[in-house]
């Protein structure tokens, strides 16, 4: 259940881990049930995730996909330190405290079936 709004488009909620798959090179794909975030997320948004109770610094994670009809968001990440290692150990049913959606969204003009995305760092 979502907490009250903290700003116009910023929510704090306990997201439930629906699935977490591992791929080569310590890459993970997680699906989270996050009703408020999923409804308000746009391309370019990200969330701040609390990794566990002993790691105080939240980790920013790009939202790979938002599916409002399922109340879910998807995140793709690579284990690259203590925080993402803690996230990789989460089990289905665990709750993850998150804040989002954050960032400056953008509109896709002249939508193409296969857009080209270029990024840096270790996220999507």
TrEMBL record:
PROSITE patterns noted in UniProt: FAD_FR
Tell me where in this chain the FAD-binding FR-type domain is found: 4-108
Fetch the InterPro entries from UniProt. Answer: Cbr1-like_FAD-bd_dom, FAD-bd_FR_type, PyrK_electron_transfer, Riboflavin_synthase-like_b-brl
Under Gene3D superfamilies, the record lists: Translation factors
Q: What Pfam family is a match, any one?
A: FAD_binding_6
Q: Which GO terms describe its molecular function?
A: oxidoreductase activity
Q: What is this protein called?
A: FAD-binding FR-type domain-containing protein
């Amino acid at each position: 259940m979502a907490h009250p709004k903290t700003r116009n488009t910023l929510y704090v909620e306990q997201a439930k881990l629906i699935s977490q798959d591992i791929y080569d090179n310590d890459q993970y794909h997680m699906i989270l049930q996050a009703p408020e975030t999923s409804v308000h997320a746009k391309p370019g948004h990200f969330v701040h995730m609390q990794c566990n109770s002993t790691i105080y610094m939240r980790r920013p994670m790009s939202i790979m996909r938002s599916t409002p009809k399922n109340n879910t968001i998807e995140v793709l990440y690579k284990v690259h330190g203590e925080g993402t290692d803690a996230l990789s150990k989460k089990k289905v049913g665990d709750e993850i405290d998150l804040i989002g959606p954050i960032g400056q969204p953008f509109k896709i003009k002249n939508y193409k079936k296969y857009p080209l995305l270029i990024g840096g760092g270790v996220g999507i």
